Amino acid sequence: MKDKHDNPSGNLAIDRRSILKGSVLGGSALLAGGLVPELFPGEAPLMAADLKGFRRIATEEAFSIPEVAAGLKGVARAPGNSLDLILVQRIYDAKPSDPPLALLRQLLDLEDERLRDMDANGVTMHLLSLTAPGVQMFDADTATALAELANDRLAAVISRHPTRFAGLAAFAPQAPNRAAKEMERAIKTLKLNGFILNSHTNSEYLDNPKYFPILEAAEALDGCIYLHPRAPSDGMAVPFREYGMDSAEWGYGIEVSTHAVRMMASGVFDRFPKLKICIGHMGEAVHFWLWRLDYMNKAAQTRGAAPKTQLTPSEYFKRNFVITTSGQESHLALDFSIKQLGVDNVLWAIDYPYQPSAPAVAFMDSAPVSPAEREQLYHGNAERVFHIKPA
Ligand code: 1WB
Ligand code: MN
Q1: Is 98 an active-site residue?
Q2: Exposed/middle/buried for 59, CB within 10 Å: 0-12, 13-18, 19+?
């Protein structure tokens, strides 16, 4: 057993014995320059030299391709009233008079600015996914073709940088049987790592039996579906139209959490017991609600409002879901998530380019967890859930 006096670099400011006993590490915000509040004050911080070697796999990292961006510019200009148009118009149809927006450039870049950002921040790998709303606002034929094209591009960039990129396959729920075929090609031929779905499609959710071929394929292929946000569906859009609430501040999380609860309450996981769903933004708060979900779902079942299910919502959530920390850099929320779900079920993410890399790294570097837990959060869980080859 080593202690700080044995460390040849002489900069190890932590008591190894307390780590080995399983106690928490210091929560002081070493790399965040004091931005992250201390959860466990009084503990010594880790020093930078001890952290730079981590295998950091970021699991909700967005990209696009020019053809999808061009399609979304068409969506931005077509008649329509969906809440997503606020974001789609801002990013894909910016007026020349608008202040320049780095986002579209960063989404389309894979091998230049992105790799430099990863290098500068010690980020080993991006698990890439076609950014929201993906292909889900196109007609079925366009969506199917663009999903295939995006998956081909993704596989090509991964083959050029197999240690830096992994990827989630897009598919077009508008044509469920063709989607299932593409999911199979993505895993078996392109060797992608799972699937990305940007929540609802035409205001319909995965509990709808028309989508069962997709769930069946995901389960059979052992591919986790990352249920990523888009703006709330038409039926619940109105209260989100003001104050910027359509977006990542609130609307996105409500959309995805609603999707997750629909799936659990519908009994879809009785039909597909091995289906894995990943949700970001620290679980979109669903696991904060587990006690109440269990209590009230049982009441709903008793009065005949909800179907009888084999398990409770909390049992489904712990069996069928994992969460990521994307864009939710609170040590208190992380601590709660680990206690509620187990450290095996929490994965690290940045949400590049929508959120900056440096604070996301600082957040996890300084998280009040043991070294073994930090390895799980940073890469071990991602390797297991998304079939990424360990280093
Ligand atoms: C933003 C965030 C936009 C996310 C997104 O577009 C996604 C944003 C698809 O902050 O503007 C996200 O995943 O949190
Ligand atoms: Mn995201």
Answers
A1: no
A2: buried
